[in-house]
Amino acid sequence: MIYQLASGLTVALKRLLTNPTLMLLNLTVSCDLAIVGGFTFFVAKYVEIQYAVTAATASIVIGGINLPGTVFSNILSSFCIKKFDLNQFGLGKMMAFFSFCSFLFAIPLLFMGCSNPAIAGVTTHYNSSFSQGSLPNLNNSCNCNCACPDNVYKPVCGSDGITYSSACHAGCTDVWREGMENVDELGLSNNDTIYIRCRCIATNDHWETTDEGGIGTEGPCDWTCKKLLQFALVVAIITVFSSMKPNPGTMLMLRCVDSCDRALAIAFCGVVMRVLGFFPAPIYFGAMISNTCLIRQESCSREGACLVYDLERYRYSFIGLFLGLKLLAAVLSTCTYYSINPDRLEKNKSETLPMEPLKENKRSKSP
């Protein structure tokens, strides 16, 4: 009994593995699941960092985009399949069309971002005439005697409009105290922690205090990126196109195999899609995001959370990987369409022909 089951399973698996349409369809859907497992999981963090919004705002924006678009697209794709009575070729063409549309609309995301905010020694050089080497480099002649730790980020906004990693890195030697001067004249709040005699901060006419340097306030300088609305609209369109694909993909998977293999095909495809697409995606998406970190927290000689990201590199890496998966899915869906076997189409038609109702013999009435 066990031998017969194993033998039958082996033969059925061989039929599935030698079915080019099914295997290409598996790879196509694996790319789509990789996008779900990578891009969808990390996009809220991307929005938070790239557009300088809170985590709550980023989650609301992404949730407000994904839910309506997914529901609408699933209903619309089901209606189209039923209305036009799509066969295998129609289903494959539908998948390829929406794959390329999704890829083309994703290209503008590469340019919907802003440049890095000015952070001395991290994204821009200190205001110094001396050669400072490559970035990031937090050490400079203006703070060389301060012994500032590298893996600390307590930002200070300088009077020159540049953010410094900490008051130490800004070369500040004192804190503003009551009675020293009226802070209202400088346009600052009495509640702000104000650092003075900061040798790394260039002085100007408005905030100049002494000849020893400028002043700084606790917290980063104001920086905004006003492209969140454009990003949200484009992602909403991509979500609609992407969500049009699962229904024709499922129908095509069931129709490209023999009726006796459909249950096994569903299980086989579920395993392949998750192993190749869903499970590894967060690993390489996370690794790529981690490589864009400029300043990382360190505790007990162990690396911790990232404190500052290179926004431009982050955008090109994250969206670039997303675009690569989109392009691969579009190419594979086209290959899936061209791999459809016309003979199988005729076979499926014969299997789904409606059965004629049985004619009941009329009983002759007895005289």
Structure description:
By secondary structure, the protein is α+β, with helices and mostly antiparallel strands. The chain folds into 2 domains: 13-115 and 226-281 and 310-345, Growth Hormone, Chain: A, CATH 1.20.1250.20; 118-222, no CATH class. It has helices spanning 2-17, 20-50, 55-84, 88-106, 228-242, 246-255, 262-278, 281-290, 311-338, 342-351; strands at residues 156-158, 163-164, 174-175, 194-198, 214-218, 293-299, 302-309. It has a 5-stranded antiparallel sheet with strand order 2-1-5-4-3, with no helix packed on it. Strand 1 and strand 2 form a beta hairpin. Residues 205-210 and 358-367 have low confidence and may be disordered.
Per CATH, the class of the largest domain reads Mainly Alpha
Question: How many distinct helices?
Answer: 10
Class by alpha and beta content: alpha+beta
Largest sheet: 5 strands, antiparallel
Shape: elongated
Could you spell the SSE succession in H and E letters?
A: HHHHEEEEEHHHHEEHH
The largest sheet has its strands arranged as 2-1-5-4-3
* Total beta strands: 7
**Which stretches are low in confidence, meaning pLDDT under 50 for 5 or more residues running?**
205-210, 358-367
**Total separate domains:** 2
CATH level-3 fold name of the largest domain: Growth Hormone, Chain: A
Indicate the radius of gyration in whole angstroms.
31 Å
